[in-house]
């Protein structure tokens, strides 16, 4: 949050406003980003006239051309959960960008992560077992913002790991929790 602020002597008639979500009044303060009206945006009804993404193959990312002048954009899509009757496996939501991009992501109304291009190496987000409905429609909501016009690539697919180390690896195999019972 805001710790302190100062203005030069030449600044006059400045008006300040504080915006965000007061986390002290939330039932689940860890399921919020602090964006104004985020609960309403995340819970908004999905427009079924918009095309859904094809969940697999995860190798072909979706590209969004972001514009700085657009501010915060709320994007929503639906996807079909994979059939996990033979195997149970987690999914990976991956973001790739070249410049100052911030993405907050929700799967089925659960906040799963924040991608900050300038502040860290994390661009793969683990979607926990039980969050995605198997062989059913699921929602993906993104709050996206950029300071520079830039493309954002988004991939939703299996969690791919190296068979020996267990580390993420683009040349690995899908991580399987266990065979379904």
From TrEMBL:
| Molecular functions (GO terms) | beta-galactosidase activity
Q: Give every Beta-galactosidase jelly roll domain span.
A: 44-146
Q: What does UniProt give as the signal peptide span? A: none
Entry's Pfam families? BetaGal_ABD2
Domain of life of the source: Eukaryota
Tell me the keywords, alphabetical order: Glycosidase, Hydrolase
Tell me the InterPro entries matching this sequence. Answer: BetaGal_jelly_roll_dom (IPR025300), Galactose-bd-like_sf (IPR008979)
This protein is called what?
Beta-galactosidase jelly roll domain-containing protein
Query: Which organism is this entry from?
Result: Rhodosorus marinus
